Amino acid sequence: MEYAGTTVGVLGAERFDARVVYGAGALQEIKRQQQLFKISIWCPDPASRDATAPVIDLALADLTFIPLADGASARLVFVASAAQDGTADASLYRRDLTYSAEYPTTLAQMTPAMLFGTARVSVQGVLLKNLQA
């Protein structure tokens, strides 16, 4: 048998069966949660505030689901928009965009793979190994 890098060679083999088995990751959803978040846009005048908010809102509207670090996804939903002009004397105009992110709480685990069968490798008619996995 030869081994070089990612290659295995069996010299003189008439028949060779190989199987590769790897466990797989699995997520189990145990509950759903919802988190509100707010994006605040601060601008020097109402016109720039009102021009900026739709650009951000449109970009987020295109993202129905966003991927999470554990492999699950969160669903984004627009909730509200509100203008705050209370700080106009300081030349600051604010618009808040509120969104909801609904996401699962999951348990992550590796599931073992199971393989049943027999592999036979023979060289010049001599049985080398009988494997059962």
Topology:
Layout: E1 2-4, E2 7-9, E3 13-15, E4 24-43, H1 46-61, E5 65-67, E6 73-84, E7 93-111, E8 118-123, E9 126-132
Antiparallel strand pairs: 1-2, 3-8, 4-7, 5-6, 6-7, 8-9
Report on this structure:
There is one protein chain. The protein folds into two domains: 1-21 and 115-133, no CATH class; 23-112, Alpha-Beta Plaits (2-Layer Sandwich). A hairpin with a 2-residue loop joins strand 8 (118-123) and strand 9 (126-132). The chain has one helix spanning 46-61, and strands spanning 2-4, 7-9, 13-15, 24-43, 65-67, 73-84, 93-111, 118-123, 126-132. The chain starts with a strand and ends with a strand. The chain is mainly beta and 133 residues long. Strands 4-7-6-5 form a four-stranded antiparallel beta sheet. Strands 3-8-9 form a three-stranded antiparallel beta sheet, with no helix packed on it. Helix content is 12%, strand content 57%.
